[in-house]
């Protein structure tokens, strides 16, 4: 009987959770769910100079926002350094590793000589078979693995296929630095083994590391996990994804007003597909996802496609859920903190009432916030450029006549609609010619939800006050 699948997401906390990392986490999470296994989280904080608490918080916050959870406690790699050193001692005792007394200057000279001779700059095995008694005084050794010199290392990768690396191209990599600190290569292997990881799903920029890591597994007699190296994400122009393309932190996408459900749906389609299905629920992703179906070629990030997909999710999300997401996200949106501060009980009721009309016109939560701004505006309203153009002298005179009628009208959607239509007919105008200046007066903008919905959401007193402010 095969072992239950255990995947892991193992980011380095040297910055935010970038979008490629978000997709790697999603693929690990989906594969674990698909197979009835579990995903673990490990923070690879061995780079003490660049690892920060803020970055750790941002990574965990980003994963939670994407709706990706993990089993058990978060593992911190640096805290496991004594265990990493213990494994090196085992390798030394078994003759699988050795002490290297080369100085930094000697290593530099070795690299320069290799490059001058047209060879790859690799360690030449100077201390591989030398007697440690020859060690120079006062030099602290690094510990290197005794890598095989002949044959080849083969990776049967679930995405990349069969990858063969001649062992002559792999040098005796450092396991422990001369200061006693474990290297990343060693730490990753020990942690994956101790955590029971069965499947390593990560970016194909780690493919060259995989062969070196396999040598450590073999030296320890440990089972090598199944490997799947997924292609990187490129920009629309085919170049490696950069900040100008959208290589931003997951928190930046939240600030741009994207929904977590839409981000999951968009990210899963970057490099993986299920027929022609574009829109899929999380349950469908879990049911359909298999790492074997991930393509080998790089996928392209497309903001327009993401925005259109997000627009679909905005319209499809039930109003209660969308309201909850909107209020949660407000502090992260530009200018949203002020709106959140003004969201008292009355404004919340208005916003809930306006939401069905607002979400039809918004592709992002930022657009939803901008669309809802009229609810929070103070009188007299500031008019945007288009609204200012609409409200010329004739339009203001028209509003004055309409105001007199609406004062006498029962405040229901049916009664106000009937009154405005009758007014337009009496004025010999099409409804739009009345609705346009009315919208500008009520919202300060030329676009809004349906005008009669706006009248209901604002209520009689506020609506009549705003119309009167602009009437002449």
TrEMBL record:
Where along the chain is ATP bound?
243
Q: Which positions fall inside the Glutamyl/glutaminyl-tRNA synthetase class Ib catalytic domain? A: 5-307
- The secretion signal range is none
Find motif ('KMSKS' region) and give its ranges: 240-244
* Localization: Cytoplasm
User: Could you tell me the EC number(s) of this protein?
Assistant: 6.1.1.17
Output one GO MF annotation. glutamate-tRNA ligase activity
What positions does the record give for the motif labelled 'HIGH' region?
11-21
* Coiled coil spans: none
Give the matching CDD domains.
GluRS_core (cd00808)
Q: Which reaction does it catalyse?
A: tRNA(Glu) + L-glutamate + ATP = L-glutamyl-tRNA(Glu) + AMP + diphosphate
What's in the keyword line of the UniProt record?
Aminoacyl-tRNA synthetase, ATP-binding, Cytoplasm, Ligase, Nucleotide-binding, Protein biosynthesis
Enumerate the spans annotated as Aminoacyl-tRNA synthetase class I anticodon-binding domain: 333-469
The text of the family note is: Belongs to the class-I aminoacyl-tRNA synthetase family. Glutamate--tRNA ligase type 1 subfamily.
Oligomeric state and partners?
A: Monomer.
State what this protein does.
Catalyzes the attachment of glutamate to tRNA(Glu) in a two-step reaction: glutamate is first activated by ATP to form Glu-AMP and then transferred to the acceptor end of tRNA(Glu).
Q: Write the protein's name.
A: Glutamate--tRNA ligase
């Amino acid at each position: 009987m095969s072992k239950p699948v255990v995947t892991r997401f193992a980011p380095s906390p040297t910055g935010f959770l970038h979008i490629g990392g978000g997709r790697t986490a999603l693929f690990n999470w989906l594969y674990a769910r698909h197979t009835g296994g579990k995903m673990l989280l490990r923070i690879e904080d061995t780079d003490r100079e660049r690892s920060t608490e803020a970055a750790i918080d941002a990574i965990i916050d980003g994963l939670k926002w994407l709706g990706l959870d993990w089993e058990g406690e978060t593992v911190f790699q640096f805290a496991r350094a004594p265990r990493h050193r213990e494994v090196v001692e085992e390798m030394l005792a078994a003759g699988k590793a050795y002490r290297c007394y080369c100085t930094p200057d000697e290593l530099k000279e070795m690299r320069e000589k290799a490059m001058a001779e047209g060879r790859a700059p690799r360690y030449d095995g100077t201390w591989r078979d030398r007697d440690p008694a020859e060690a120079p005084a006062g030099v602290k050794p690094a510990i290197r693995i005794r890598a095989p010199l002949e044959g080849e290392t083969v990776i049967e990768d679930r995405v990349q296929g069969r990858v063969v690396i001649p062992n002559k191209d792999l040098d005796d990599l450092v396991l422990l630095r001369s200061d006693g600190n474990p290297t990343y290569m060693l730490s990753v292997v020990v942690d994956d083994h101790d955590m029971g990881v069965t499947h390593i799903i990560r970016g194909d920029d780690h493919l060259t590391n995989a062969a070196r890591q396999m040598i450590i597994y073999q030296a320890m007699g440990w089972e090598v996990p199944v490997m799947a190296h997924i292609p990187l994400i490129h920009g629309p122009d085919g170049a490696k994804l950069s900040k100008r393309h959208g290589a931003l932190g997951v928190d930046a996408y939240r600030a741009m007003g994207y929904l977590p459900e839409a981000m999951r749906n968009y990210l899963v389609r970057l490099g993986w597909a299920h027929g022609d299905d574009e829109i899929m629920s999380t349950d469908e992703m879990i049911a359909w996802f298999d790492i074997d179906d991930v393509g080998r070629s790089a996928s392209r990030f497309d903001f327009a496609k993401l925005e259109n997909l997000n627009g679909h999710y905005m319209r499809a999300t039930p109003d209660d859920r969308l309201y909850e997401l909107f209020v949660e996200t407000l502090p992260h949106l530009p200018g949203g903190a002020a709106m959140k501060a003004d969201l008292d009980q009355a404004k919340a009721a208005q916003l809930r009432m306006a939401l069905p009309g607002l979400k039809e016109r918004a592709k992002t939560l930022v657009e939803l916030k901008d669309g809802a701004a009229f609810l929070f505006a103070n009188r007299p309203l500031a008019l945007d450029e288009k609204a200012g153009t609409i409200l010329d002298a004739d339009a203001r005179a028209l509003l004055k006549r309409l105001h007199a009628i609406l004062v006498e009208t029962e405040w229901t959607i049916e009664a106000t609609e009937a009154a405005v239509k009758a007014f337009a007919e009496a004025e010999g105008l099409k409804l739009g010619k009345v609705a346009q200046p009315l919208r500008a007066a009520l919202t300060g903008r030329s676009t809004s939800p349906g005008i009669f919905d706006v009248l209901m959401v604002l209520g009689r007193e506020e609506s009549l006050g705003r119309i009167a402010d602009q009437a002449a």
